[in-house]
Each structure stands twice: as C-alpha cells, then as structure tokens.
Amino acid sequence: MPAGGFATATAGGGKFEAKITPIVILSCIMAATGGLMFGYDVGVSGGVTSMPDFLEKFFPEVYGKTQDPNLNSNYCKYDNQNLQLFTSSLYLAGLIATFFASWTTRRLGRKPTMLIAGFFFILGVVLNAAAQDLVMLIIGRIFLGCGVGFANQAVPLFLSEIAPTRIRGGLNILFQLNVTVGILFANLVNYGTAKIKGGWGWRLSLGLAGIPAVLLTGGALLVLETPNSLIERGRLDEGKSVLRKIRGTDNIEPEFLELVEASRMAKEVKHPFRNLLKRRNWPQLSITIALQIFQQFTGINAIMFYAPVLFDTVGFGSDAALYSAVIIGAVNVLSTCVSIYSVDKVGRRMLLLEAGVQMFFSQVVIAIILGVKVTDDSNDLHRGFAVLVVLMVCTFVSAFAWSWGPLGWLIPSETFPLETRSAGQSVTVCVNLIFTFVMAQAFLSMLCTLKFGIFLFFSGWVFIMSIFVVFLLPETKNIPIEEMTDMVWKKHWFWKRFMDDKEEVPPTGTNGDPLTEKWAYYGT
Fold first, then answer.
1. For this UniProt entry, which segments traverse the membrane (predicted)?
2. 368 close to 497: Cβ distance less than 8 angstroms
C-alpha cells in the first residue's frame, strides 16, 4: 500500500502523478548502503591509525615518534607520507575507477554498477583484515577505493532518478545519511577494539567493514533498475513497467513520454564527455566542479579522517580522542537528518548559506583556542578548553552535515540533463576524489606546518564558498530534473548567457544589464 501521494509539476504546467510507494523507499534505503560503506572507510582509517598495535606493525617510524618522550612536537608526531598514503590510496583508486564506472553506469545500468561496487568492497575488506604487511594493506585499500568509485558514480544517480520530484532531495540525502552512519559505526567500533588486548583489535575494525559491503551487494541484487536507465538502453516496455511500479499509479504516460524524449535527445549525443564542454553545459559543469572543491576545502574530511589523531595531538590522550570522535560521529548523523527534513522545504541555498556562517565561526574559535593554549610541546589542554574544542568541532560538523555534505552530491546529480548525466556524475566523483586524495595526503603535513593556522586556512575557504553560493548557485528545490534548463539555467542572472537559444540575451541596456538582473533574481 502506498504511503502517500502527490503530483509533481512540470515546467509546462502539466503534472506527473506520483505516490511515495514502499518500493521506492526500500530501493533507496538499499542503494544508499553504498554511503554506509564509504562512511565506514572514512571513519575507520582515523581510528586504527591512532592504535599503537597498528602503528607498530605497519608504521614503526610513527610509532616511535608517539612513544618518544623527548619529541617536542605535538603537531608533527603523525606526519608521515606512508601513513597518509594508507588513507589517501583509497581515494586515488576511486578516482581511476570512476572512469570505468561511467561506462558501466551508462551501458549496463545503475544496478549492475552498484553490484560491482559491492564485490570490490568485499575483496578490499578481506585483504585489509588479513593484511600481513604494508603492501597488502595498501592493495586492500585500493580495492576499497574501486568500490567507492563505482558506488559514488551509481548511487546518487539511482536515488535521483527513482525518487519522485518533491522528495528527491530527501531521498538522495539518504546516501549522505548512510555516510554519516558509517562514520559513527566506525568510531564506535574503533572505541571498542582499541581496548582489545593482544594486538588484533585493528583487524576487527577493518574486518567489520564487511557488514556494509554485504548489505550493498545484497541490496544491489534486490533493487529495481531505474526507468531512466532502462529507457536509455532501449528497453521501453520494461522501463514503463518499472515506472508504473515505483510511482504507484497507472497514470504515468506524461512522465514516460518525457523520459523517452529525453532519452532520444541523449542518444543523439555520441560523445557525452566532449558534450560536457559545450557552452550550454558550462553552468552545470562549473557548479559541479566548484561544489566538489569547496566541499573538501571546508576541512571536513581532514577532521573526519584524523579526528582521533587530531584530538590526541591537542592533548586529549588516545582513549579520550576516540571517545570524542564518537561524539562527533553522532552529531554528524543527527544533523544529516535535519537536512533530509529541510532540504525540500527551505531549499538548497538557505542551508548552504546558514552553514557557511556556522562553519566560519566555529573554525575561527578553534584556531584561537589552539593558538593560545596548545604549544608544540604542551602535554595537556585544560579540560574546559578541551570541551570547548569538541563543542566547536561538533558545531562545525553539524553545519557541514546538513549542507555541504549532502548537497555537494545532491545538486550535481539533479542538474545535468540526461545526455550528459552519467558523464557529469563521473566528473563529480572524479573531482571530489582528486581533492579528497589531496586533503588526505596533505593534512598531517599541513597540521605540522600550519599548526593551529590550519583552521584559519579552512575558514578562509568557507568564506569564499559562501560568496559563491550567494551569487552563482541557483535554487533547484522541487524542480523536475528534465526541466532544469528552462526553469533554472535560462532564468539565472549569470548562467542564462550560456544557454543556447534562438533569442540571445541582450548584452547591455536596461532590461539586459547583468548587474540589474542579478539583484532582480535574488529579490524574487
């Protein structure tokens, strides 16, 4: 029985009838377990790299630094390229895998691509849990990275295409919610396994990644393929049947015809990546690239990768550091739920702008506290200031979790037209993984060099990205994916000049002046 129903408006004034059916909700939950695996990988790496047994076995040089009482360098004791490679190799592998994932997503479908991701995840988990040396450990991380590349390519597309328009944002954010749940799960596991005697706790931490890996693989076997993908590959009758199932109504002809037309236009594009570079696709491409760069330069992944290490560095101690990371993980999950509730009500822009203020403030406060109270050779941070640091990190994480975290994936997945959607998603994942790799590989070295100033570095980027949102990011709330060009890009004060149209936008004059139209746009 459907849980509810509504009609979604098209640009032309027609309506697509759609109900929120159980099959849609279950399919989205299963698909979003790809985010659970991704989040666990992010969270587990920071925890195990703070475990003495793990460091002693794979990174003896770092272990020696952490045990040396004569080392006067809190900020630099974890600065090691091999240790950073353990974290960052996953994202470099994901970057390469996403190019292959683009082909499988387009030619084989979203469902098989998610299944491939699941197999890569399982293989990587086995190698990591059984690792005997650094090479085996890194190879396992590489397989996990391949899974990330395939999952991040397919899952956001799957969620955007199967969800009804009016709850597309909320269902799409299930992916990011599962990322945060995965991080929390990893933090809880790390907190428990760090207490295991005998030196094998880290193996359990890495091995338990098999749970989300199996969930994703099983989910990929059970979910329906999206009607967009079936129609795109010429399976029209099957696509129509699936559309009828997921919408919970027989009145699907208008939406079906629009999907068929979009597919016909997409097939005329022989080279989707080359087509991305055409002038009319510059707005979507520019915003996609900017969002992925900005998402990483908030500093979130640096904090989530290395939260236990970071807190240990500023004097919390290993046990307290892991406990603090658990608190942050819980805040991350709860705040993502806020985004699911509000993204289709208050809109994308409002969430991003509010979060910009919150993140900027919290990072400046953290920088001031660390700058005044934590010297390079201090042994402890006063309890009151330690609590304030955790509070400010939680403030930062909560803002990110209801804004740049989920929306960095949601907005690109809903803005590209069908003919460039798979290629556009590849660019999204590719750029994200490039800068995730850069940040993972560089953070500990940056921490050693900049010390507390690293938070001022990130706060400066938060200010820049907030200005970008104010002037260049349009609102996409409650707009059908196939109507984005007419309803968003052709009406935006700046991006409309890139839209191919018979009537060119006047470059000058009272009605065509870009500055005038900019303020008119933001005044509506």
1. 20-40, 83-101, 113-131, 137-159, 171-192, 204-224, 285-309, 321-343, 350-372, 384-405, 426-446, 452-473
2. no
Rounded distance between C-alpha atoms, residue 236 and residue 427, angstroms: 28
In this structure, how many other beta carbons lie within 10 angstroms of the beta carbon of residue 9? 16
Q: Taking the model in full, what pTM does it have?
A: 0.75
Over residues 392-414, the pLDDT tens digits come to 888 999 999 889 988 988 888 88
In this predicted model, what pLDDT tens digit does every residue of 319-341 receive, in sequence order? 666 677 788 888 888 998 888 88
Q: What percent of the chain has pLDDT over 70?
A: 84
Which is more confident, 503 or 513? Answer: 513
- Apex CA 371: angle with CA 366 and CA 375, to 5°? 125
Residue 313 has pLDDT above 50, yes or no: yes
Query: Looking at residue 279, what DSSP letter applies?
Result: G
d(Cα 340, Cα 170) in Å, to the nearest integer?
A: 4
Residue listed under structure tokens 């040089």: 61
Do 40 and 209 touch, CB atoms closer than 8 A?
A: yes
Q: What residue ranges in 270-327 does DSSP mark as E strands? A: none
Asked if pLDDT for residue 204 goes beyond 70, the answer is: yes
Q: How far is CA 354 from CA 51, 332, 357, in A?
A: 37, 16, 6
Cα–Cα distance between 204 and 372 in angstroms, integer?
A: 39
Q: How far is C-alpha 203 from the geometric centre of its chain's CA atoms?
A: 26
Q: What is the DSSP string of 83-119?
A: HHHHHHHHHHHHHHHHHHHHHHHHHT-HHHHHHHHHH
Three-state SS for 494? coil
Q: Is the pLDDT of residue 37 over 60?
A: yes
Q: What pLDDT score was predicted for residue 445?
A: 84
Q: If you write DSSP's letter for every residue of 477-519 in order, what string do you get?
A: TT--GGGHHHHTGGGSTTGGGGS--SSPPPSSSTTT-HHHHHH
Instruction: Tell me which of 19 and 7 has the higher pLDDT.
Output: 19
Three-state DSSP string of 346-411 = CCHHHHHHHHHHHHHHHHHHHHHHHHHHCCCCCCCCCHHHHHHHHHHHHHHHHHHHCCHHHHHHHH
Residue range 231-260: average pLDDT? Answer: 88
Here the tokens at position 30 are: 């299963």
Beta bridge partners of 8: 16
